[in-house]
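Worked example 2:
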Amino acid sequence: MLTQKIKSLSISIFAMLFVFSISEAFSITTSEITQQLACTCGCNMVVSACEGTMECTAAKNITDKAAELIKKGQNRDEIIQHFVRTYGERILAAPTRKGFNLTAWILPFLAILLAAGGIYVFLDCCMSSKKEGSYKPTAGNNKHSEEDKKYLQQFEKELKAFDL
């Protein structure tokens, strides 16, 4: 009796695992595919957005073709590769992360880091001059300070004479 229950339980577990592990092609939707593809009508939107906002025959054709390929049992990568072979890499909403396209992924972050570093160095230079003191007399400035003292004394004498 117990072995019978264990056998039926194990069969039902295997059946559930089989149902949940059905091919990836059945689990994908046209929406998932069309969100990864750029529309060819020139609107610069992904296919799902273009089809949702305006009546676009190009987006409709791509969505219909994606649905057809899903029904044929192709997985996500095979469907994307079909569109890349048909339209070229410009159909992809985001560039691939390999080859020369890798620069499109790395360059913006590198530019941000370089700009932040440049700003840091600039601010550090500006702040270090303020830390050192805003005015340091030099040999030439001592001469002027002596002249300033002479004029300051003259000014004070005239003020006293004016007060009467």
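The CA atoms of residues 144 and 150 lie 10 Å apart. The two ends are 127 Å apart (CA to CA).
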